Amino acid sequence: MTPTEAAESTEPAVTPPAEGTQDAPWHRLDRRMLLIRPVLDLAKSLPVLLGALLFGHGEPWQWIGLVFTAIAVFTGVSHVLTSRYRITASQVEWHTGLLLRKQRAIPRDRIRTVDVTSEPKHRLFSLAAARIGTGRHSHGKGPGKDELVLDAVTIAEAQRLRTLLLHRKAEAQAQTQTEATEAAAPPEQLIAAVDKRWLRYAPFTLSGLAVVGAAVGTVYHFAHELHFDPVEFSLVQTVVGHFADTPVWLSLVLAAAGLLVLVSLLSIGGYVLSFWNFRLTREPAGTLHVRRGLITTRSVSIEEDRLRGAEIREPLPLRLAGGARCVAIAAGLREGKSADKGGSLLLPPAPLARAHEVVAEVLGEDPAATPLVRHPRRALYRRLSRAVLGVLLLAAALYGLAWLGALPDWPWQGALVLVPFAALVGWDRYRGLGHAFTGRYLVTRSGSLDRGTAAVRCDGLTGIVLERSYFQRRAGLVTLIAPVAAGKGKYPVLDVGEADGLALADRALPGLLTPFLTGDRDRG
User: Fold this and answer.
1) Which residues on adjacent β-strands are paired with residue 481?
2) Distance of CA 116 to the CA centre of its chain
3) Do 436 and 386 contact (CB within 8 A), yes or no?
4) Would the pLDDT of 215 be above 90?
5) Which helix (DSSP H) or strand (DSSP E) does residue 366 occupy?
6) 167 to 65, 286, 303, 361, 398: CA distances (angstroms)
7) Which positions ≥6 away from 51 have C-beta within 8 Å?
8) Number of structural domains, the chain?
9) Helix or strand (DSSP H, E) at 296
10) Please, what is the Cα angle at 201 between 252 and 256, to 5 degrees?
């Protein structure tokens, strides 16, 4: 061995910086996204380009359209080429931009969600988009300042990011455990999986009705803008002529039946697309993991330490069919208008008994199944009066327009026919009211058209709010609101007796309202 070789053999080996340290290496987006990103940007710019080429008179407008399209494609390509990210011990850093540099950093201790989504454009190359967020809501459609989107990473890299950023406790335990203990770690536990028999609940979600409404609105908009009358089609003329030759009642029945079949088929299709391969599992690190989707797959992780409860939602059509959906009340998860589109869904539309089983598996108990305390009869009178009075006011307004000659008589007469149905809805809203206090959970239920039973942990409440309107004061009722930094943000107990509401608030947060309580503390 020569002296040079001996010196080289004694030099310490240089190890690359470890992931999750201050000198962590930088990573780039997957280059395969360059095959599809220009096509997507070109498709987004297509309306501007076609407008400039077809409706722009003169070469300047055509060149402006081409330049705008070129800038859009160049921006997308440069985003993929220049984006870099890394995970240090304290934060997630992201740099991008060629002409205009952008830098963003999110502290790791503020990260609440890592939402992994794989749309068709990603699945072509086995890629995914990892959305890293702090759980704060941002205004607008795009990602906010507290959200970072890595829209072109491999599926394995997305799962690695999810494990590294969310399983912090597991990471700390792994440093103290031996290799034998790690090898003996239990596999993930299956809590719920979609059943093909649950497709029977899809028509009762009425999601297809929104699709039909959007399609009709879009067709009408384009027909109006192009000054085109759809009746000019021979097929439409044939259908209109057929309905004109049949009795009105039969035409209404056929139209309703056709709409019902169409909405049902679209709802079933939407159910399959959204909840195909749905699986809810519990990982050894104490994390709930939800996977679902057919064309667009989605993977959401919910740390059990951030669970503040659960809610069973029963919209009226789904409730009539004996179904329900289950939603998590967890800190850091987005709560939008639809739980199906958010990351809090624990169970798609399924049998009500299965929803209660999922709540019991997730929380360790099922507080939502606790018998609820009925509210006073005065709450029933309030709901009946508001429901019936609203319809009567509408009928009176329509009658006034008919008396002035602006409308025929049948609209106000039809509104009067709705009075019994309004009373039935008011009675059902009262029948759905209820509350309970069991263990460490406050349970509240309300609603008729969209009934929800929420079980919220009392140690997760940020306070108690008591509200009383003028009419509630006259009726001796009060609304108790339980604010929580999760889910909807607040869960009300509507129109409960004043003494019962104060006692319930004192039981939920002992001592908070004690100076204001003058009655029996144990009442209610």
Assistant:
1) 465, 492
2) 14
3) no
4) no
5) none
6) 48, 8, 8, 21, 60
7) 65
8) 3
9) none
10) 5
Residue 445: alpha-carbon gap to chain centroid: 20
Q: Domain check: are 229 and 355 in the same one?
A: yes
Q: Closest Cα partner for 291 from 301, 283, 305, 306?
A: 301
In one-letter notation, the amino acid at residue 80 is V
Q: Which helix (H) or strand (E) holds 34?
A: none
Lowest mean pLDDT: which of 19-33, 139-153, 232-246?
Answer: 232-246
Q: How far apart are CA 84 and CA 94, in angstroms?
A: 6
Tell me the pLDDT of the chain averaged across its residues: 81
What letter represents residue 121's amino acid?
K
Same domain for 247 and 361?
Answer: yes
Let me know the angle formed at the C-alpha of 306 by 303 and 311, rounded to the nearest 5 degrees: 100
Q: Is 123 exposed, middle or buried (0-12, 13-18, 19+ CB in 10 A)?
A: middle
For 117, the domain range is 27-136+143-172
- The verdict on 293 and 422 lying in the same domain is no
Instruction: Give me the helix-helix angle, 46-54 and 59-82, nearest 10°.
Output: 160
Instruction: Give the model confidence (pLDDT) of 452-509 as tens digits.
Output: 999 999 988 988 889 999 999 999 999 999 999 888 889 999 999 988 888 888 888 8
CB-based burial label for 267 (10 Å; 0-12, 13-18, 19+) = buried
Does 444 fall in a domain? no
